[in-house]
Amino acid sequence: MAAAIKALNAKIRSNKYTDYFCSTHFWGPASNFGIPIAAIADMSKDPEIISGRMTGALTFYSGTFMRYALAVTPANYLLFGCHAINFSSQLVQGYRYLNYWNFGGRDEALKLKAREGVSEVKGVAEQVGDKVKQAVGK
What residue numbers bound the domain in which 60 lies? Predict the structure, then answer.
């Protein structure tokens, strides 16, 4: 059994494509792509839920590992790409966080919600008024 496993491993390692596909140079970044995918998905959510500390930590982490991905031999461009996408996504999230909490975005969002609430209440009041007129008119 050990000889069969050793032979299979030698067969896999003899082809440069399967050797790469079965290495940590591929599976490390492939499994790490969940972080930038989540960051991109979060860009459409309300900025109130963004954690400034976590965004800062992930920006720093991705910036550090972009450098690491190019420093190893051989350079791991898949890992670099993963962290470059995450770094960019976290910068956008950081901008959204700062804009919402520090540059007046929250006040604008609250004013917009208040205007929407007033117009919704007016619409409901008109509907109720119409129903009352219909009931009284009968």
Answer: 34-103
